[in-house]
Amino acid sequence: MSARLRASWFHVPERIPRQLREMPIPPRLLGLPRHFPATGLRALESPPWAGLAVAGIAWLAVVANSNPFGGVWWTGQEARCYWQPLLTAPYFQSTWTNPIAYVYSPAFLQAISPLTRLPWESFLAIWTAILLGALRFLTGPKLLAAGVVFAAMELAGGNISLLIAAAIVLGFRWPATWAFVLLTKVSPGIGLVWFAARREWRSLGIALGATTLVVLVSALALPDAWPQWIDVLARNAGRDGTWAALPIALWIRLPIAFAVVVWGARTDRRWTVPVASMIALPALWYGSLSMLLAVIPLRARSAATEGQSGRESEAEVPAGRRRLPEPSILGA
Protein backbone atom coordinates (compact mmCIF):
# COMPACT_ATOMS: atom_id res chain seq x y z
CA MET A 1 0.00 0.00 0.00
CA SER A 2 1.46 3.34 -1.04
CA ALA A 3 2.13 6.13 1.43
CA ARG A 4 -0.54 8.28 -0.27
CA LEU A 5 -3.13 5.50 0.03
CA ARG A 6 -2.22 4.81 3.66
CA ALA A 7 -2.60 8.50 4.48
CA SER A 8 -6.04 8.63 2.88
CA TRP A 9 -7.02 5.40 4.68
CA PHE A 10 -6.22 6.73 8.14
CA HIS A 11 -7.78 10.16 7.59
CA VAL A 12 -11.17 9.22 6.26
CA PRO A 13 -13.14 11.71 8.46
CA GLU A 14 -11.12 14.59 7.03
CA ARG A 15 -12.09 13.56 3.50
CA ILE A 16 -15.81 13.77 4.31
CA PRO A 17 -17.33 17.05 3.06
CA ARG A 18 -17.49 19.68 5.77
CA GLN A 19 -21.29 19.98 5.57
CA LEU A 20 -21.74 16.25 6.10
CA ARG A 21 -19.06 16.05 8.82
CA GLU A 22 -20.80 18.77 10.90
CA MET A 23 -24.31 17.34 10.43
CA PRO A 24 -25.80 15.90 13.67
CA ILE A 25 -26.42 12.18 13.19
CA PRO A 26 -28.54 10.10 15.61
CA PRO A 27 -26.49 7.40 17.34
CA ARG A 28 -28.79 4.61 16.09
CA LEU A 29 -27.81 5.43 12.48
CA LEU A 30 -24.21 4.80 13.46
CA GLY A 31 -25.06 1.43 14.97
CA LEU A 32 -24.63 2.73 18.51
CA PRO A 33 -27.10 1.87 21.30
CA ARG A 34 -29.09 4.74 22.77
CA HIS A 35 -28.12 3.80 26.35
CA PHE A 36 -25.05 1.61 26.69
CA PRO A 37 -25.86 0.17 30.18
CA ALA A 38 -29.14 -1.35 29.00
CA THR A 39 -27.74 -3.35 26.11
CA GLY A 40 -26.77 -6.35 28.23
CA LEU A 41 -30.32 -6.81 29.49
CA ARG A 42 -32.03 -6.66 26.11
CA ALA A 43 -31.14 -10.28 25.45
CA LEU A 44 -33.22 -11.24 28.50
CA GLU A 45 -36.33 -9.32 27.50
CA SER A 46 -39.56 -11.12 26.64
CA PRO A 47 -43.08 -9.96 25.74
CA PRO A 48 -45.07 -8.65 28.72
CA TRP A 49 -47.61 -11.46 28.37
CA ALA A 50 -44.79 -14.01 28.73
CA GLY A 51 -43.66 -12.36 31.95
CA LEU A 52 -47.18 -12.47 33.35
CA ALA A 53 -47.46 -16.13 32.37
CA VAL A 54 -44.19 -17.04 34.07
CA ALA A 55 -45.18 -15.06 37.17
CA GLY A 56 -48.54 -16.84 37.27
CA ILE A 57 -46.88 -20.23 37.02
CA ALA A 58 -44.47 -19.29 39.81
CA TRP A 59 -47.37 -18.13 42.00
CA LEU A 60 -49.24 -21.42 41.47
CA ALA A 61 -46.10 -23.44 42.19
CA VAL A 62 -45.41 -21.62 45.46
CA VAL A 63 -48.99 -21.87 46.70
CA ALA A 64 -49.49 -25.49 45.61
CA ASN A 65 -46.31 -26.72 47.32
CA SER A 66 -46.74 -24.92 50.63
CA ASN A 67 -47.07 -26.58 54.00
CA PRO A 68 -47.89 -24.76 57.24
CA PHE A 69 -45.70 -27.23 59.13
CA GLY A 70 -42.68 -26.54 56.96
CA GLY A 71 -40.09 -28.90 55.56
CA VAL A 72 -36.95 -28.85 53.42
CA TRP A 73 -38.72 -29.02 50.06
CA TRP A 74 -41.88 -27.09 50.92
CA THR A 75 -42.35 -23.50 49.85
CA GLY A 76 -43.03 -20.54 52.13
CA GLN A 77 -40.49 -21.46 54.78
CA GLU A 78 -39.55 -17.85 55.48
CA ALA A 79 -43.12 -16.63 55.11
CA ARG A 80 -44.12 -19.01 57.89
CA CYS A 81 -41.92 -17.00 60.25
CA TYR A 82 -44.22 -14.02 59.67
CA TRP A 83 -47.52 -15.91 59.74
CA GLN A 84 -46.98 -17.93 62.91
CA PRO A 85 -45.97 -15.45 65.70
CA LEU A 86 -48.64 -13.78 67.81
CA LEU A 87 -48.76 -10.12 68.75
CA THR A 88 -49.10 -11.18 72.38
CA ALA A 89 -45.81 -13.13 72.24
CA PRO A 90 -43.95 -12.13 69.06
CA TYR A 91 -40.55 -13.41 70.17
CA PHE A 92 -41.51 -16.76 71.65
CA GLN A 93 -39.40 -18.29 68.85
CA SER A 94 -36.54 -15.91 68.11
CA THR A 95 -33.35 -17.96 67.90
CA TRP A 96 -31.57 -16.97 64.71
CA THR A 97 -31.31 -20.43 63.13
CA ASN A 98 -34.73 -21.65 64.25
CA PRO A 99 -36.84 -22.41 61.13
CA ILE A 100 -39.78 -20.46 62.55
CA ALA A 101 -37.84 -17.65 64.25
CA TYR A 102 -39.26 -14.15 64.11
CA VAL A 103 -36.55 -11.51 64.53
CA TYR A 104 -38.02 -8.35 62.97
CA SER A 105 -39.46 -5.40 64.82
CA PRO A 106 -42.95 -5.42 66.38
CA ALA A 107 -43.99 -2.78 63.84
CA PHE A 108 -43.59 -5.19 60.93
CA LEU A 109 -45.70 -7.82 62.65
CA GLN A 110 -48.35 -5.22 63.41
CA ALA A 111 -48.38 -4.07 59.79
CA ILE A 112 -49.05 -7.55 58.42
CA SER A 113 -51.37 -8.65 61.25
CA PRO A 114 -54.49 -8.43 59.03
CA LEU A 115 -52.87 -11.05 56.78
CA THR A 116 -51.66 -13.29 59.60
CA ARG A 117 -55.24 -13.79 60.74
CA LEU A 118 -55.96 -15.63 57.49
CA PRO A 119 -55.49 -19.38 56.97
CA TRP A 120 -52.01 -20.36 55.90
CA GLU A 121 -52.88 -21.01 52.25
CA SER A 122 -54.65 -17.66 51.88
CA PHE A 123 -51.83 -15.84 53.62
CA LEU A 124 -49.17 -17.36 51.38
CA ALA A 125 -51.21 -16.72 48.23
CA ILE A 126 -51.52 -13.01 49.04
CA TRP A 127 -47.96 -12.75 50.32
CA THR A 128 -46.52 -14.32 47.16
CA ALA A 129 -48.62 -11.97 45.04
CA ILE A 130 -47.15 -9.02 46.97
CA LEU A 131 -43.62 -10.28 46.32
CA LEU A 132 -44.39 -10.71 42.62
CA GLY A 133 -45.74 -7.17 42.56
CA ALA A 134 -42.46 -5.90 44.02
CA LEU A 135 -40.58 -7.96 41.45
CA ARG A 136 -42.64 -6.46 38.62
CA PHE A 137 -41.85 -2.99 39.96
CA LEU A 138 -38.12 -3.72 39.89
CA THR A 139 -37.88 -5.42 36.51
CA GLY A 140 -40.59 -3.78 34.45
CA PRO A 141 -42.81 -5.80 32.09
CA LYS A 142 -40.17 -7.00 29.62
CA LEU A 143 -37.73 -8.38 32.20
CA LEU A 144 -40.37 -9.89 34.47
CA ALA A 145 -39.89 -13.45 33.19
CA ALA A 146 -36.12 -13.27 33.66
CA GLY A 147 -36.64 -11.68 37.08
CA VAL A 148 -38.89 -14.54 38.21
CA VAL A 149 -36.19 -17.03 37.27
CA PHE A 150 -33.47 -15.00 39.01
CA ALA A 151 -35.57 -14.56 42.17
CA ALA A 152 -37.05 -18.08 42.16
CA MET A 153 -35.40 -19.06 45.44
CA GLU A 154 -36.59 -15.88 47.13
CA LEU A 155 -40.14 -16.32 45.86
CA ALA A 156 -40.19 -19.93 47.01
CA GLY A 157 -39.04 -19.02 50.50
CA GLY A 158 -41.15 -15.89 50.88
CA ASN A 159 -38.49 -13.68 52.44
CA ILE A 160 -38.69 -9.87 52.26
CA SER A 161 -35.56 -9.14 50.20
CA LEU A 162 -37.62 -8.06 47.18
CA LEU A 163 -39.63 -5.71 49.37
CA ILE A 164 -36.43 -4.23 50.79
CA ALA A 165 -35.08 -3.75 47.27
CA ALA A 166 -38.28 -1.95 46.26
CA ALA A 167 -38.12 0.24 49.39
CA ILE A 168 -34.54 1.24 48.53
CA VAL A 169 -35.50 2.26 45.00
CA LEU A 170 -38.49 4.25 46.27
CA GLY A 171 -36.32 5.75 49.01
CA PHE A 172 -34.56 8.06 46.57
CA ARG A 173 -37.85 9.85 46.00
CA TRP A 174 -39.60 9.10 49.31
CA PRO A 175 -36.91 8.60 51.97
CA ALA A 176 -39.54 7.54 54.52
CA THR A 177 -39.57 4.07 52.92
CA TRP A 178 -36.21 3.43 54.58
CA ALA A 179 -38.19 2.86 57.78
CA PHE A 180 -39.15 -0.54 56.37
CA VAL A 181 -35.49 -1.45 55.91
CA LEU A 182 -34.41 -0.27 59.36
CA LEU A 183 -37.27 -1.97 61.18
CA THR A 184 -36.82 -5.37 59.58
CA LYS A 185 -33.27 -6.45 58.73
CA VAL A 186 -31.67 -3.31 60.23
CA SER A 187 -28.10 -3.58 58.86
CA PRO A 188 -29.04 -2.91 55.20
CA GLY A 189 -29.85 0.57 56.47
CA ILE A 190 -26.18 1.29 55.79
CA GLY A 191 -27.54 2.53 52.48
CA LEU A 192 -28.51 5.73 54.29
CA VAL A 193 -24.83 6.64 54.19
CA TRP A 194 -25.66 7.74 50.63
CA PHE A 195 -27.52 10.77 51.96
CA ALA A 196 -24.83 11.55 54.52
CA ALA A 197 -21.99 11.31 51.99
CA ARG A 198 -23.85 13.65 49.66
CA ARG A 199 -24.87 16.01 52.48
CA GLU A 200 -28.53 15.47 51.68
CA TRP A 201 -29.49 16.06 55.27
CA ARG A 202 -33.16 16.66 54.58
CA SER A 203 -33.59 13.20 53.02
CA LEU A 204 -31.62 11.60 55.84
CA GLY A 205 -33.75 13.42 58.40
CA ILE A 206 -36.97 12.27 56.73
CA ALA A 207 -35.79 8.65 56.74
CA LEU A 208 -34.80 8.69 60.40
CA GLY A 209 -37.79 10.79 61.43
CA ALA A 210 -40.24 8.43 59.73
CA THR A 211 -38.59 5.46 61.44
CA THR A 212 -38.85 7.16 64.82
CA LEU A 213 -42.51 7.98 64.23
CA VAL A 214 -43.30 4.35 63.37
CA VAL A 215 -41.53 3.17 66.52
CA LEU A 216 -43.46 5.60 68.71
CA VAL A 217 -46.84 4.66 67.24
CA SER A 218 -46.07 0.96 67.45
CA ALA A 219 -44.84 1.23 71.04
CA LEU A 220 -48.17 2.70 72.11
CA ALA A 221 -49.83 -0.62 71.25
CA LEU A 222 -46.99 -2.99 72.15
CA PRO A 223 -44.78 -1.25 74.71
CA ASP A 224 -43.26 -4.48 76.06
CA ALA A 225 -42.35 -5.89 72.66
CA TRP A 226 -39.78 -3.26 71.77
CA PRO A 227 -37.36 -4.01 74.64
CA GLN A 228 -37.77 -7.68 73.73
CA TRP A 229 -36.77 -6.94 70.14
CA ILE A 230 -33.63 -5.10 71.28
CA ASP A 231 -32.78 -8.16 73.35
CA VAL A 232 -33.34 -10.43 70.34
CA LEU A 233 -30.96 -8.32 68.25
CA ALA A 234 -28.33 -8.41 71.00
CA ARG A 235 -28.62 -12.19 71.42
CA ASN A 236 -28.37 -12.92 67.70
CA ALA A 237 -25.70 -10.36 66.83
CA GLY A 238 -22.66 -11.90 65.19
CA ARG A 239 -24.30 -15.23 64.46
CA ASP A 240 -23.80 -16.66 61.00
CA GLY A 241 -26.56 -18.04 58.80
CA THR A 242 -27.23 -21.65 57.91
CA TRP A 243 -26.06 -23.65 54.89
CA ALA A 244 -28.35 -21.46 52.75
CA ALA A 245 -26.19 -18.37 53.35
CA LEU A 246 -22.77 -17.33 52.10
CA PRO A 247 -20.21 -18.10 54.85
CA ILE A 248 -18.89 -14.54 55.18
CA ALA A 249 -19.31 -12.86 58.56
CA LEU A 250 -21.15 -9.54 58.80
CA TRP A 251 -18.18 -7.77 60.41
CA ILE A 252 -16.20 -8.50 57.24
CA ARG A 253 -18.97 -7.42 54.86
CA LEU A 254 -19.96 -4.18 56.61
CA PRO A 255 -16.78 -2.20 55.77
CA ILE A 256 -17.08 -3.35 52.16
CA ALA A 257 -20.70 -2.21 52.04
CA PHE A 258 -19.75 1.15 53.54
CA ALA A 259 -17.01 1.68 50.97
CA VAL A 260 -19.32 0.74 48.10
CA VAL A 261 -22.07 3.18 49.09
CA VAL A 262 -19.62 6.04 49.75
CA TRP A 263 -17.99 5.50 46.38
CA GLY A 264 -21.39 5.40 44.73
CA ALA A 265 -22.52 8.58 46.48
CA ARG A 266 -19.44 10.51 45.39
CA THR A 267 -19.67 9.31 41.79
CA ASP A 268 -23.47 9.58 41.51
CA ARG A 269 -24.12 5.86 41.08
CA ARG A 270 -27.42 5.10 42.75
CA TRP A 271 -27.26 1.41 41.88
CA THR A 272 -24.51 0.97 44.47
CA VAL A 273 -27.02 1.50 47.31
CA PRO A 274 -28.96 -1.79 46.87
CA VAL A 275 -25.66 -3.57 46.24
CA ALA A 276 -24.20 -2.24 49.48
CA SER A 277 -27.41 -2.99 51.39
CA MET A 278 -27.38 -6.56 50.12
CA ILE A 279 -23.75 -6.99 51.18
CA ALA A 280 -24.69 -5.69 54.64
CA LEU A 281 -27.55 -8.15 55.24
CA PRO A 282 -27.33 -9.89 58.64
CA ALA A 283 -26.97 -13.16 56.73
CA LEU A 284 -26.35 -13.16 53.01
CA TRP A 285 -28.84 -15.83 52.01
CA TYR A 286 -28.56 -17.07 48.44
CA GLY A 287 -32.12 -15.93 47.79
CA SER A 288 -31.20 -12.44 48.94
CA LEU A 289 -29.14 -11.99 45.79
CA SER A 290 -32.50 -11.03 44.27
CA MET A 291 -31.90 -7.57 45.78
CA LEU A 292 -29.59 -6.98 42.83
CA LEU A 293 -32.71 -6.55 40.72
CA ALA A 294 -32.98 -3.07 42.22
CA VAL A 295 -30.03 -2.15 40.03
CA ILE A 296 -32.28 -2.34 36.94
CA PRO A 297 -34.55 0.66 37.62
CA LEU A 298 -31.72 2.69 39.10
CA ARG A 299 -29.43 2.12 36.11
CA ALA A 300 -32.33 2.84 33.75
CA ARG A 301 -32.93 6.14 35.51
CA SER A 302 -29.24 7.02 35.30
CA ALA A 303 -29.22 6.28 31.57
CA ALA A 304 -32.32 8.42 31.05
CA THR A 305 -30.77 11.26 33.05
CA GLU A 306 -27.55 11.06 31.05
CA GLY A 307 -29.53 11.03 27.81
CA GLN A 308 -31.48 14.10 28.88
CA SER A 309 -28.29 15.88 29.90
CA GLY A 310 -26.75 14.99 26.56
CA ARG A 311 -29.69 16.37 24.64
CA GLU A 312 -29.61 19.58 26.66
CA SER A 313 -25.88 19.96 26.07
CA GLU A 314 -26.33 19.33 22.35
CA ALA A 315 -29.10 21.92 22.21
CA GLU A 316 -26.69 24.51 23.61
CA VAL A 317 -24.23 23.93 20.76
CA PRO A 318 -25.00 25.71 17.46
CA ALA A 319 -26.07 23.26 14.76
CA GLY A 320 -23.17 24.20 12.56
CA ARG A 321 -20.62 23.25 15.19
CA ARG A 322 -21.88 19.73 15.95
CA ARG A 323 -19.49 17.08 14.75
CA LEU A 324 -19.48 13.38 14.12
CA PRO A 325 -18.02 11.10 16.80
CA GLU A 326 -14.29 10.52 16.71
CA PRO A 327 -13.01 7.64 14.54
CA SER A 328 -12.30 5.54 17.65
CA ILE A 329 -16.00 5.44 18.49
CA LEU A 330 -16.94 4.32 14.98
CA GLY A 331 -14.10 1.86 14.80
CA ALA A 332 -15.44 -1.61 15.63
Provide a descriptive summary of the structure in words.
This protein has 332 residues and is mainly alpha-helical. It has one domain. Helix content is 57%, strand content 0%. The longest helix is centred in the C-terminal third of the chain and has 22 residues, at 295-316. It starts with a helix and ends with a helix.
Question: What is the average per-residue confidence, as pLDDT, rounded to a whole number?
Answer: 83
H/E topology pattern: HHHHHHHHHHHHHHHHHHHH
Which percent range fits the helix content? 55-70%
* Largest sheet entry: none
The N- and C-terminal alpha carbons lie at a distance of 22 Å
The total count of strands amounts to 0
The coarse silhouette is globular
What is the overall number of helices?
A: 20
- For the record, the count of structural domains works out to 1
| Low-pLDDT residue intervals, each spanning 5 or more residues | 5-13, 29-38, 323-332
Q: Nearest-angstrom radius of gyration?
A: 25 Å
Main structural class: mainly alpha
Give the amount of beta strand, in percent: under 5%
What's the quaternary structure here?
Answer: single chain
